[in-house]
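pasting for ref. prot 1 ->
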Amino acid sequence: MSDYFHNIPEIKFEGKDSDNPLCFKHYNEKQKILGKTMKEHLRFATCYWHTFTWPGLDPFGGPTLERPWMGSGDPLTMAEKKLYAAFDFFSKIKTPFFCFHDRDVAPEGINYLETKKNLDHIIKIMEQKMKETGVQLLWGTANSFSHKRYMSGASTNPDPEVFAYIAAQVKDCMDVTQHLNGQNYVLWGGREGYETILNTNMKKELDNLARFLELVVEYKHK
């Protein structure tokens, strides 16, 4: 249990006439409809980014959300604090699934080896929390857009070092998703493509993307 939600009990079904703002009024996970419970029909997943990582900024202003794991301090310690709060939330709202980007759960390091070490550390704790709570992983994905190295794309980037970096990042994220028995893996290319046709070699971008997808498929079937 985390300190962040310690005053909030498990959210329960109390019916449409309840005046409790923190209850389910219509969602009764045990109610059967057409032979299945609501829980089986409505397989909710909590997104790590939108719920715990997004700082509340927009194009016109800075961050507006201040949470304990967003403060100054050791990034890995902050990631652990966020993970404990996340699983406390999953358990209390009774969401059966969650999903994440790799950088949502573990911080970037000073180099790729440290970044991977950070991810491996957090995944070990995450695996234990999944066993404790029964919450399952719906999907994982690699954040191929936030860091400035991806400003000109990731798998479509003309820089071979950037291409190699995202290939390694996706490979590691596929590994941890499979390790956690995730039900899917998402290829999320937030900065792929181009701003105008004047600043790109379209054939090279498409060739890079095709090669990247081929590598993903080849690795998956090994």
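and prot 2 ->
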Amino acid sequence: GDKAMDEPKLTDEEKNDLILHFKRRQIGCCIFNEKSQAIDYLFKNIFFEGCHIGFGGSMTFEKDLNLYQDLKARKEYHLIDRYDKSIQREDLNAMMTNADVFLMSSNAISMTGELVNIDGRGNRLSYLLYGPKKVVILAGTNKIEKDLRSAYLRARNVAATKNCVRLDKNTPCRKSMKC
């Protein structure tokens, strides 16, 4: 089954509201009912032959949508592989900044159209704000909260703590599972 089916569903009215709030912030927004629709959209409308694609540390990208393995296997795209140990960090940052497409997720999204991100080094946020020609945020509906305050709390106390565990960080957030 499609894991997205386990995530909370948005009503048509909520979808329209979210799209409108993002549009007011000059952010395009597409909402898909199935993961396969999102993947098809990327390959048909975002990626192009020869494009350089960078990505942030996103479980949505890597595990939920399996895009890391898929893009790595395709020769018509140039995946900037953040896991390639032969690339120096400074070179990797330059490559990501100059990517045609940068794929990332957000720690939380508010129904009022705000993205909330907490970054260890700030590199993912720098790519979101400046550099790559196109930035695509991939996120499940589990990351959507009703307002900015709720989104901020989710980013701190759900996403940040999970990331501390996943990245094996010895931080106060990990110890208390609350930031």
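The helical segments are 12-24, 35-46, 59-64, 67-73, 89-97, 123-129, 148-166, 172-176.
The beta strands are 52-55, 78-79, 101-104, 108-110, 115-116, 134-137, 144-145.
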